[in-house]
Specification:
With 174 residues, this protein is α/β, with parallel strands linked by helices. The protein has six helices and five strands. It has a five-stranded mixed beta sheet. Helix 1 crosses helix 3 (36-46). Mean pLDDT is 86; it is low at 143-148.
Length: 174
Amino acid sequence: SLLLLFQCLSIRHVLSVLACLCTERSVVFTSRSTSLPPRCWEAMLSLLWPLQWTLVYVPLLPDSLSTYLQAPTIFAYGVHTAALEEQVQEPDGLNGVVIVDLDADTVTGTDATPRLPKLAADVLHQSVRAVLHPGIEDVDDPFSDAESTTTGPTDDAIRERKIRCAFAAFFASL
C-alpha cells in the first residue's frame, strides 16, 4: 500500500529514494519488522511507473545472505535491522549503499544523495502533500470550510490513485 510507505517515510525521504533509484544507487530498506520492507519496496517500485526497476531486487534478504549487502552491484534489498547492523560492523561496511530505516524515517549512507529536478520535484511534493494532508493550508483559517478528514477503504483507494497520478505526471514532465 502506498499509504503504508508514506506512514513510514516522509514525502521528502520518498523523493530521495526515488532519486536514488532513478540514478541506479544501491538502496536497502530496513526495519525490525520482517513484513514492512517488502510491502514498502513494492509500493516504492510501483511509483517508478512508467519506468521499471530491472536490477537486483530482493524484497526481504534472508539473514543468512546478509553478506550480499557488500555485493559490488546495484541492488534494492529489504533487510531486518539485526542483519544490517551485523554487516555495518564489518571492516568494509556498506560503502555507497543508501540505508532507509523505515522505523525511524531516516535515509543515510551516502554523502551526495542525488536530487530530482527542483521544479518538478516541488510540484510532486506539493501534489502528494495535498493528497496526504488535505486542508492543511486552511488550518489557521477560522473561516475555512474544511471537511472532515476521516477516511474509509474507498477513500484510501482514491488517495492512492491520486498519488500514483502525481508520480506519473512528474515523470511525464521530465
